[in-house]
């Protein structure tokens, strides 16, 4: 059992609910006290708000070794918010989700999680991911509780689609199996995708069965830092049609990337969170 240490950072441009409940990740749970506990990179951490600060509890040495980069703490989000606030709509979206930070998630976990996300609700995605981790991931202790790392590609590559179906993956079972085998064999390489221009990485990833436009863009954005992508889904299509005059998925994506350029992914998250929460507040 490692020694747990606390690191205190300013809460400027960082809100726990905005970041962990904006739809980008699936392994963070909110506690009754408002804190969030999550697993990433075979590690666990607990984050809480204390006045004007965020307190990060993790195993000794893990903050600098892992969580600083994962939480994207060295990026100037004030600069980004200023850059994407191109009109009144974006100003409202940025203000609403002002504490969103884009997490630097692991490639394989993001790929499998977003394959599971297809035509699925966030609560069910989380359930399936947790079952997958509990069944095939490595267990470890954090604060006297057992957590499970996301399984390695090699652990999933030897399984059959039926094994994933038993966890509730449904029709996505064969896609999870195929993607795991591609990554385990080296045919699909994180390093190669990272080194490619966004357009080439997107073309290659789209060749994986079960990876469509949204899954592809989310994987590249949330795990490989391809921030010039503007993933589209129901909420983004709505807001781009209502507020930007985009009449199709294709035009929503192209208009978003035209407007926001290298900050497209950040703008997309502000818009997604804002538009989704507006409907929730109205009870739709």
Describe this structure in words.
With 284 residues, this protein is of the alpha+beta class. It folds into three domains: 4-74, TATA-Binding Protein, CATH 3.30.310; 107-219, Orthogonal Bundle (Endonuclease III, domain 1), CATH 1.10.340.30; 234-281, Endonuclease Iii, domain 2 (Orthogonal Bundle). It has 15 helices and seven strands. The chain has helices at 16-20, 62-70, 77-84, 88-96, 107-116, 122-136, 153-157, 161-165, 173-185, 190-195, 198-205, 213-224, 234-244, 249-260, 264-281, and strands at residues 4-10, 28-30, 36-40, 43-50, 53-59, 139-142, 145-148. The strands form two sheets. The chain has a five-stranded antiparallel β-sheet. A hairpin with a 5-residue loop joins strand 2 (28-30) and strand 3. The longest helix is centred in the C-terminal third of the chain and has 18 residues, at 264-281. The radius of gyration is 19 Å and the shape is globular.
């Amino acid at each position: 059992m490692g020694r747990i240490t606390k690191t205190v950072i300013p809460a400027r441009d960082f809100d726990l609910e905005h970041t962990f409940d904006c739809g980008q990740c699936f392994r963070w749970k909110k506690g009754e006290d408002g804190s969030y506990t999550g697993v990433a990179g075979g590690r666990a951490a607990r984050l809480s708000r204390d006045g004007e600060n965020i307190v990060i509890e993790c195993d000794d040495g893990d903050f600098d070794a892992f969580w600083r980069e994962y939480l994207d703490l060295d990026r100037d989000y004030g600069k980004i918010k200023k850059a994407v606030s191109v009109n009144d709509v974006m100003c409202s979206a940025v203000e609403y989700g002002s504490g969103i930070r884009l997490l630097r998630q692991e490639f394989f976990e993001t790929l499998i999680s977003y394959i599971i996300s297809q035509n699925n609700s966030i609560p069910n995605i989380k359930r399936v991911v947790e079952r997958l981790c509990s069944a095939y991931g490595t267990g470890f202790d954090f604060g006297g509780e057992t957590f499970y790392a996301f399984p390695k590609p090699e652990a999933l590559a030897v399984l059959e689609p039926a094994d994933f179906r038993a966890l509730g993956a449904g029709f996505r079972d064969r896609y999870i199996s195929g993607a795991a085998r591609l990554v385990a064999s080296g045919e699909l390489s994180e390093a190669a995708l990272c080194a490619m221009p966004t357009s080439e990485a997107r073309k290659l990833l789209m060749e994986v069965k079960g990876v469509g436009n949204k899954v592809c863009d989310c994987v590249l954005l949330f795990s490989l830092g391809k921030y010039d992508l503007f993933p589209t889904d129901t909420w983004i299509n709505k807001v781009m049609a209502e507020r930007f005059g985009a009449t199709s998925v294709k035009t929503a994506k192209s208009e978003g990337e035209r407007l926001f350029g290298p900050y497209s992914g950040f703008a997309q998250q502000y818009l997604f969170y804002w538009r989704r929460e507006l409907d929730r507040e109205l009870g739709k």
